[in-house]
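User: Fold both of these, please.

Assistant: Here is the first one.
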Amino acid sequence: MAIAVTPKIIKVLGVDDHELVMSGLGSRLDHENDIELVGGLPDGEHVIDEVRRTGANVVLLDLEMPGPDPFEVIGDLKRMHPEVRVIVLSAHVRDHYVDAAVRAGAWGYVSKNDEVDEIINAIRRVTKDEFVFGSLVLERCQLIDRTTRRLKTAPVSKLDMLTPRETQVLRMIGRGLGRKEIADELHRSPRTIDNHRASIMRKLNITDRVELVRYAIREGLVEI
Protein backbone atom coordinates (compact mmCIF):
# COMPACT_ATOMS: atom_id res chain seq x y z
CA MET A 1 0.00 0.00 0.00
CA ALA A 2 1.46 3.33 -1.10
CA ILE A 3 2.02 5.92 1.60
CA ALA A 4 0.87 9.42 0.75
CA VAL A 5 3.66 11.97 0.97
CA THR A 6 2.68 15.40 2.21
CA PRO A 7 4.36 18.05 0.05
CA LYS A 8 6.71 20.44 1.81
CA ILE A 9 4.99 23.77 2.34
CA ILE A 10 6.74 26.83 0.89
CA LYS A 11 6.34 29.64 3.40
CA VAL A 12 6.11 33.09 1.84
CA LEU A 13 6.59 36.44 3.58
CA GLY A 14 5.18 39.45 1.73
CA VAL A 15 6.80 42.88 2.16
CA ASP A 16 4.73 45.59 0.50
CA ASP A 17 3.04 48.73 1.76
CA HIS A 18 0.09 48.21 -0.59
CA GLU A 19 -2.31 46.10 1.44
CA LEU A 20 -4.43 45.16 -1.58
CA VAL A 21 -1.44 43.50 -3.26
CA MET A 22 -0.74 41.24 -0.31
CA SER A 23 -4.38 40.47 0.44
CA GLY A 24 -5.00 39.58 -3.20
CA LEU A 25 -1.98 37.34 -3.37
CA GLY A 26 -2.86 35.76 -0.04
CA SER A 27 -6.36 34.91 -1.31
CA ARG A 28 -4.87 33.29 -4.40
CA LEU A 29 -2.30 31.31 -2.40
CA ASP A 30 -5.09 29.90 -0.23
CA HIS A 31 -5.88 27.66 -3.19
CA GLU A 32 -2.32 26.26 -3.44
CA ASN A 33 -1.54 23.09 -1.49
CA ASP A 34 2.22 23.68 -1.33
CA ILE A 35 2.47 27.45 -0.70
CA GLU A 36 1.36 29.49 2.31
CA LEU A 37 1.52 33.24 2.93
CA VAL A 38 2.82 33.28 6.52
CA GLY A 39 3.06 37.01 7.08
CA GLY A 40 3.08 40.51 5.67
CA LEU A 41 4.99 43.70 6.42
CA PRO A 42 4.47 47.27 5.16
CA ASP A 43 8.23 47.94 4.97
CA GLY A 44 11.59 46.22 5.37
CA GLU A 45 12.33 47.38 8.92
CA HIS A 46 11.66 44.03 10.62
CA VAL A 47 12.12 41.55 7.77
CA ILE A 48 14.94 39.64 9.48
CA ASP A 49 12.92 39.18 12.68
CA GLU A 50 9.82 38.14 10.75
CA VAL A 51 11.74 35.58 8.70
CA ARG A 52 12.99 34.04 11.92
CA ARG A 53 9.54 34.07 13.49
CA THR A 54 7.67 32.57 10.55
CA GLY A 55 10.37 30.33 9.09
CA ALA A 56 9.72 31.85 5.66
CA ASN A 57 11.48 30.23 2.70
CA VAL A 58 10.67 32.99 0.20
CA VAL A 59 10.36 36.76 0.63
CA LEU A 60 8.35 38.77 -1.90
CA LEU A 61 9.75 42.30 -1.68
CA ASP A 62 8.51 45.54 -3.18
CA LEU A 63 11.05 48.27 -3.98
CA GLU A 64 9.05 51.44 -3.36
CA MET A 65 8.43 51.48 0.38
CA PRO A 66 9.22 53.65 3.40
CA GLY A 67 11.97 52.57 5.76
CA PRO A 68 15.24 50.83 4.90
CA ASP A 69 16.57 50.76 1.37
CA PRO A 70 15.18 47.56 -0.23
CA PHE A 71 18.52 46.63 -1.76
CA GLU A 72 20.13 46.80 1.67
CA VAL A 73 17.33 44.55 2.97
CA ILE A 74 18.06 42.02 0.22
CA GLY A 75 21.76 42.10 1.11
CA ASP A 76 21.03 41.64 4.82
CA LEU A 77 18.81 38.64 4.09
CA LYS A 78 21.46 37.08 1.88
CA ARG A 79 24.07 37.50 4.60
CA MET A 80 21.97 36.43 7.60
CA HIS A 81 19.62 33.91 5.96
CA PRO A 82 21.34 32.62 2.80
CA GLU A 83 18.79 29.81 2.52
CA VAL A 84 15.93 32.30 2.03
CA ARG A 85 15.09 33.24 -1.56
CA VAL A 86 14.13 36.85 -2.29
CA ILE A 87 11.89 37.71 -5.23
CA VAL A 88 11.40 41.37 -6.08
CA LEU A 89 7.72 42.01 -6.86
CA SER A 90 7.58 45.52 -8.26
CA ALA A 91 5.60 47.78 -10.56
CA HIS A 92 8.92 49.25 -11.70
CA VAL A 93 10.76 47.26 -14.35
CA ARG A 94 14.03 48.86 -15.37
CA ASP A 95 17.52 47.52 -16.17
CA HIS A 96 19.06 49.39 -13.26
CA TYR A 97 16.53 48.04 -10.78
CA VAL A 98 16.96 44.46 -11.98
CA ASP A 99 20.74 44.74 -11.98
CA ALA A 100 20.81 46.23 -8.47
CA ALA A 101 18.42 43.59 -7.12
CA VAL A 102 20.42 40.67 -8.52
CA ARG A 103 23.72 42.13 -7.35
CA ALA A 104 22.23 42.53 -3.87
CA GLY A 105 21.24 38.85 -3.77
CA ALA A 106 17.71 38.51 -5.20
CA TRP A 107 16.80 35.22 -6.91
CA GLY A 108 13.94 36.63 -8.95
CA TYR A 109 12.32 39.76 -10.30
CA VAL A 110 8.70 39.81 -11.40
CA SER A 111 6.30 42.61 -12.26
CA LYS A 112 3.10 43.26 -10.38
CA ASN A 113 1.50 43.22 -13.82
CA ASP A 114 2.61 39.64 -14.51
CA GLU A 115 -0.06 36.95 -14.32
CA VAL A 116 -0.60 35.64 -10.78
CA ASP A 117 0.12 32.09 -11.98
CA GLU A 118 3.52 33.27 -13.19
CA ILE A 119 4.31 34.83 -9.81
CA ILE A 120 3.29 31.61 -8.06
CA ASN A 121 5.45 29.61 -10.47
CA ALA A 122 8.37 31.93 -9.67
CA ILE A 123 7.94 31.17 -5.96
CA ARG A 124 8.21 27.45 -6.65
CA ARG A 125 11.17 27.80 -8.99
CA VAL A 126 13.40 29.87 -6.70
CA THR A 127 13.08 27.20 -4.00
CA LYS A 128 14.72 24.87 -6.54
CA ASP A 129 17.63 27.31 -6.84
CA GLU A 130 16.51 28.76 -10.17
CA PHE A 131 16.90 32.44 -11.03
CA VAL A 132 13.53 33.69 -12.26
CA PHE A 133 12.55 36.74 -14.29
CA GLY A 134 8.92 37.49 -15.13
CA SER A 135 7.68 37.83 -18.71
CA LEU A 136 7.39 41.61 -18.53
CA VAL A 137 10.91 41.86 -17.11
CA LEU A 138 12.29 39.79 -19.98
CA GLU A 139 10.30 41.88 -22.43
CA ARG A 140 11.35 45.29 -21.19
CA CYS A 141 14.93 44.86 -19.98
CA GLN A 142 18.04 44.73 -22.12
CA LEU A 143 20.48 43.26 -19.59
CA ILE A 144 18.95 39.77 -19.45
CA ASP A 145 20.21 37.05 -21.74
CA ARG A 146 17.10 35.65 -23.42
CA THR A 147 18.65 32.19 -23.79
CA THR A 148 19.98 31.60 -20.28
CA ARG A 149 17.62 34.07 -18.53
CA ARG A 150 20.63 35.26 -16.56
CA LEU A 151 21.70 38.86 -16.14
CA LYS A 152 24.35 40.05 -18.55
CA THR A 153 27.20 42.21 -17.32
CA ALA A 154 25.80 45.70 -16.99
CA PRO A 155 27.71 48.54 -18.63
CA VAL A 156 29.56 50.83 -16.26
CA SER A 157 27.37 53.77 -15.33
CA LYS A 158 27.64 56.75 -13.03
CA LEU A 159 24.74 55.19 -11.14
CA ASP A 160 27.10 52.40 -10.08
CA MET A 161 28.98 54.97 -7.99
CA LEU A 162 25.93 55.56 -5.79
CA THR A 163 25.25 53.60 -2.63
CA PRO A 164 21.87 51.79 -2.42
CA ARG A 165 20.58 54.51 -0.10
CA GLU A 166 21.73 57.26 -2.45
CA THR A 167 20.00 55.51 -5.33
CA GLN A 168 16.80 55.37 -3.29
CA VAL A 169 17.05 59.10 -2.45
CA LEU A 170 17.66 59.90 -6.12
CA ARG A 171 14.55 57.92 -7.09
CA MET A 172 12.51 59.90 -4.58
CA ILE A 173 13.93 63.21 -5.81
CA GLY A 174 12.97 62.11 -9.30
CA ARG A 175 9.41 61.54 -8.06
CA GLY A 176 9.33 65.18 -7.00
CA LEU A 177 9.54 64.67 -3.23
CA GLY A 178 11.10 67.40 -1.09
CA ARG A 179 13.78 66.88 1.55
CA LYS A 180 11.27 66.80 4.42
CA GLU A 181 9.02 64.32 2.59
CA ILE A 182 11.99 62.08 1.83
CA ALA A 183 13.19 62.30 5.41
CA ASP A 184 9.75 61.37 6.75
CA GLU A 185 9.35 58.46 4.34
CA LEU A 186 12.79 57.02 5.11
CA HIS A 187 12.61 57.79 8.83
CA ARG A 188 15.78 59.87 8.64
CA SER A 189 16.57 63.49 9.48
CA PRO A 190 16.38 66.23 6.80
CA ARG A 191 20.08 66.90 7.42
CA THR A 192 20.89 63.29 6.54
CA ILE A 193 18.90 63.64 3.31
CA ASP A 194 20.80 66.84 2.52
CA ASN A 195 24.07 64.93 2.94
CA HIS A 196 22.87 62.16 0.63
CA ARG A 197 21.79 64.69 -1.99
CA ALA A 198 25.12 66.52 -1.83
CA SER A 199 26.97 63.22 -2.28
CA ILE A 200 24.75 62.25 -5.23
CA MET A 201 25.31 65.58 -6.95
CA ARG A 202 29.06 65.36 -6.44
CA LYS A 203 29.28 61.81 -7.83
CA LEU A 204 27.06 62.56 -10.82
CA ASN A 205 28.62 65.98 -11.46
CA ILE A 206 25.20 67.64 -11.27
CA THR A 207 24.79 71.07 -9.73
CA ASP A 208 21.04 71.60 -9.26
CA ARG A 209 17.90 69.74 -8.22
CA VAL A 210 16.09 70.15 -11.55
CA GLU A 211 18.87 68.36 -13.37
CA LEU A 212 18.79 65.62 -10.71
CA VAL A 213 15.11 65.06 -11.48
CA ARG A 214 15.84 64.93 -15.21
CA TYR A 215 18.70 62.51 -14.67
CA ALA A 216 16.54 60.16 -12.56
CA ILE A 217 13.84 60.12 -15.24
CA ARG A 218 16.35 59.69 -18.08
CA GLU A 219 18.00 56.75 -16.33
CA GLY A 220 14.66 55.00 -15.79
CA LEU A 221 14.64 55.35 -12.00
CA VAL A 222 11.18 56.89 -12.11
CA GLU A 223 8.01 55.60 -13.76
CA ILE A 224 6.44 58.30 -15.98
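And the second sequence with its predicted structure:
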Amino acid sequence: MHRFSLLTSTIPPVTTSGTAIPTSKLRICIPNSNGKLVPRGTPGELHCGGLPIIKEYWLGAEKRGHEAFYDDEEGRWIRTGDRAVMEGNGEVRIVGRYKDMIIRGGENISPSAIESILLSRFDLTAEVVALPDGIAGEIPIAVVKKKKGQQVDVFKVRELLAKELGTSWVPEEIVDVESLGIDDYPRATS
Protein backbone atom coordinates (compact mmCIF):
# COMPACT_ATOMS: atom_id res chain seq x y z
CA MET A 1 0.00 0.00 0.00
CA HIS A 2 1.38 3.42 -0.95
CA ARG A 3 1.65 6.13 1.62
CA PHE A 4 0.95 9.75 0.67
CA SER A 5 2.29 12.62 2.72
CA LEU A 6 2.98 16.30 2.53
CA LEU A 7 6.53 17.58 2.87
CA THR A 8 6.93 20.99 4.43
CA SER A 9 9.64 23.46 3.56
CA THR A 10 10.09 27.09 2.57
CA ILE A 11 8.29 26.32 -0.69
CA PRO A 12 4.64 25.26 -0.91
CA PRO A 13 3.93 21.67 0.25
CA VAL A 14 4.68 18.93 -2.26
CA THR A 15 2.73 15.71 -2.50
CA THR A 16 4.88 12.62 -2.84
CA SER A 17 4.07 9.09 -3.92
CA GLY A 18 5.60 7.81 -0.69
CA THR A 19 8.33 5.24 -0.21
CA ALA A 20 8.90 1.73 -1.56
CA ILE A 21 6.43 -0.93 -0.47
CA PRO A 22 7.76 -4.06 1.28
CA THR A 23 9.72 -6.44 -1.03
CA SER A 24 10.29 -3.67 -3.58
CA LYS A 25 13.12 -1.22 -4.24
CA LEU A 26 13.20 2.23 -5.83
CA ARG A 27 16.08 4.28 -7.14
CA ILE A 28 16.46 7.41 -9.23
CA CYS A 29 18.97 7.06 -12.05
CA ILE A 30 20.38 8.78 -15.08
CA PRO A 31 17.79 8.17 -17.83
CA ASN A 32 18.29 4.94 -19.83
CA SER A 33 21.22 3.89 -17.64
CA ASN A 34 21.58 0.54 -15.94
CA GLY A 35 21.35 1.86 -12.41
CA LYS A 36 23.69 4.88 -12.45
CA LEU A 37 22.28 6.86 -9.51
CA VAL A 38 21.68 10.59 -9.31
CA PRO A 39 21.98 12.39 -5.95
CA ARG A 40 18.87 12.63 -3.76
CA GLY A 41 16.88 15.74 -4.57
CA THR A 42 17.95 15.55 -8.25
CA PRO A 43 15.48 14.59 -10.98
CA GLY A 44 16.19 11.34 -12.81
CA GLU A 45 14.43 8.24 -14.13
CA LEU A 46 12.57 6.08 -11.61
CA HIS A 47 13.78 2.46 -11.62
CA CYS A 48 11.85 -0.18 -9.68
CA GLY A 49 13.24 -3.49 -8.43
CA GLY A 50 12.45 -6.33 -6.08
CA LEU A 51 9.95 -9.16 -6.04
CA PRO A 52 7.14 -7.30 -7.88
CA ILE A 53 9.25 -7.00 -11.07
CA ILE A 54 8.44 -9.58 -13.74
CA LYS A 55 11.15 -11.40 -15.69
CA GLU A 56 9.74 -10.37 -19.08
CA TYR A 57 6.49 -9.59 -20.84
CA TRP A 58 4.16 -12.48 -21.66
CA LEU A 59 5.07 -12.41 -25.35
CA GLY A 60 8.74 -12.57 -24.43
CA ALA A 61 11.57 -10.09 -24.35
CA GLU A 62 12.24 -10.54 -28.04
CA LYS A 63 8.72 -9.30 -28.85
CA ARG A 64 8.57 -6.09 -26.78
CA GLY A 65 9.74 -4.37 -23.67
CA HIS A 66 13.18 -5.98 -23.36
CA GLU A 67 14.84 -2.54 -23.32
CA ALA A 68 12.97 -1.64 -20.13
CA PHE A 69 14.55 -4.44 -18.02
CA TYR A 70 18.08 -4.93 -16.74
CA ASP A 71 19.84 -6.96 -14.06
CA ASP A 72 22.64 -6.00 -11.69
CA GLU A 73 24.11 -7.22 -8.39
CA GLU A 74 20.94 -6.06 -6.58
CA GLY A 75 18.53 -8.00 -8.81
CA ARG A 76 16.05 -7.30 -11.60
CA TRP A 77 15.06 -3.70 -12.42
CA ILE A 78 12.66 -1.94 -14.77
CA ARG A 79 13.12 1.55 -16.17
CA THR A 80 9.70 3.20 -15.75
CA GLY A 81 10.20 6.22 -18.00
CA ASP A 82 8.91 8.38 -15.13
CA ARG A 83 10.90 11.49 -14.20
CA ALA A 84 11.13 11.51 -10.41
CA VAL A 85 12.96 12.96 -7.42
CA MET A 86 13.81 11.02 -4.25
CA GLU A 87 13.75 13.26 -1.21
CA GLY A 88 16.28 12.93 1.59
CA ASN A 89 13.81 10.86 3.62
CA GLY A 90 13.35 8.31 0.80
CA GLU A 91 9.98 9.58 -0.39
CA VAL A 92 9.58 9.75 -4.16
CA ARG A 93 7.91 12.55 -6.11
CA ILE A 94 6.94 12.00 -9.76
CA VAL A 95 7.66 15.19 -11.73
CA GLY A 96 7.04 14.14 -15.33
CA ARG A 97 7.68 11.56 -18.04
CA TYR A 98 10.86 11.11 -20.04
CA LYS A 99 8.91 9.51 -22.85
CA ASP A 100 7.12 12.85 -23.28
CA MET A 101 10.52 14.51 -23.66
CA ILE A 102 12.24 15.23 -26.93
CA ILE A 103 15.90 14.33 -26.66
CA ARG A 104 17.91 16.54 -29.02
CA GLY A 105 21.63 15.96 -28.98
CA GLY A 106 21.43 14.68 -25.40
CA GLU A 107 19.35 17.60 -24.10
CA ASN A 108 15.88 16.88 -22.71
CA ILE A 109 13.31 19.22 -24.23
CA SER A 110 9.82 19.54 -22.76
CA PRO A 111 7.19 19.99 -25.49
CA SER A 112 4.77 21.50 -22.96
CA ALA A 113 7.23 24.32 -22.11
CA ILE A 114 7.40 25.31 -25.79
CA GLU A 115 3.61 24.98 -26.18
CA SER A 116 3.07 27.16 -23.11
CA ILE A 117 5.19 30.01 -24.51
CA LEU A 118 3.52 29.77 -27.92
CA LEU A 119 0.12 30.09 -26.22
CA SER A 120 0.94 32.76 -23.62
CA ARG A 121 3.11 35.02 -25.79
CA PHE A 122 1.72 34.51 -29.28
CA ASP A 123 -1.84 33.23 -28.64
CA LEU A 124 -1.07 30.12 -30.70
CA THR A 125 -2.43 26.71 -29.84
CA ALA A 126 0.38 24.26 -30.56
CA GLU A 127 1.40 20.64 -30.48
CA VAL A 128 5.15 20.11 -30.31
CA VAL A 129 6.30 16.69 -31.46
CA ALA A 130 9.60 14.95 -32.12
CA LEU A 131 10.87 13.91 -35.52
CA PRO A 132 13.80 11.52 -35.86
CA ASP A 133 17.09 13.13 -36.88
CA GLY A 134 20.23 11.31 -38.00
CA ILE A 135 22.55 13.68 -36.14
CA ALA A 136 20.63 15.03 -33.11
CA GLY A 137 18.51 11.93 -32.45
CA GLU A 138 15.26 13.90 -32.33
CA ILE A 139 14.25 17.42 -33.29
CA PRO A 140 11.18 19.39 -32.17
CA ILE A 141 8.55 20.45 -34.70
CA ALA A 142 5.68 22.78 -33.74
CA VAL A 143 2.30 22.42 -35.42
CA VAL A 144 0.35 25.58 -34.61
CA LYS A 145 -3.24 26.67 -35.02
CA LYS A 146 -3.73 30.38 -35.66
CA LYS A 147 -6.89 32.31 -34.99
CA LYS A 148 -8.81 33.54 -38.04
CA GLY A 149 -6.87 36.39 -39.66
CA GLN A 150 -3.96 36.08 -37.21
CA GLN A 151 -0.50 36.84 -38.61
CA VAL A 152 2.55 35.19 -37.06
CA ASP A 153 6.15 36.37 -37.41
CA VAL A 154 8.03 33.06 -37.26
CA PHE A 155 11.35 34.91 -36.79
CA LYS A 156 10.01 36.58 -33.61
CA VAL A 157 8.65 33.25 -32.37
CA ARG A 158 12.04 31.57 -32.86
CA GLU A 159 13.87 34.51 -31.31
CA LEU A 160 11.75 34.49 -28.14
CA LEU A 161 11.95 30.70 -27.74
CA ALA A 162 15.75 30.86 -28.04
CA LYS A 163 15.91 33.66 -25.47
CA GLU A 164 13.50 31.99 -23.01
CA LEU A 165 14.45 28.31 -23.37
CA GLY A 166 17.70 28.08 -25.35
CA THR A 167 18.53 27.52 -29.00
CA SER A 168 18.22 23.73 -28.90
CA TRP A 169 14.56 24.13 -27.82
CA VAL A 170 13.63 26.12 -30.94
CA PRO A 171 11.52 23.95 -33.26
CA GLU A 172 13.19 23.09 -36.57
CA GLU A 173 9.91 23.90 -38.26
CA ILE A 174 6.80 25.80 -37.24
CA VAL A 175 3.94 24.53 -39.37
CA ASP A 176 0.42 25.95 -39.59
CA VAL A 177 -2.06 23.11 -39.20
CA GLU A 178 -4.12 24.49 -42.11
CA SER A 179 -1.11 24.07 -44.42
CA LEU A 180 -1.48 20.34 -43.75
CA GLY A 181 -4.97 20.42 -45.24
CA ILE A 182 -6.84 19.98 -41.93
CA ASP A 183 -8.73 22.39 -39.67
CA ASP A 184 -7.46 21.03 -36.37
CA TYR A 185 -5.09 18.33 -35.16
CA PRO A 186 -6.34 15.12 -33.63
CA ARG A 187 -5.93 14.98 -29.86
CA ALA A 188 -5.92 12.22 -27.31
CA THR A 189 -7.11 12.72 -23.73
CA SER A 190 -3.50 12.79 -22.52
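The longest helix spans residues 111-122.
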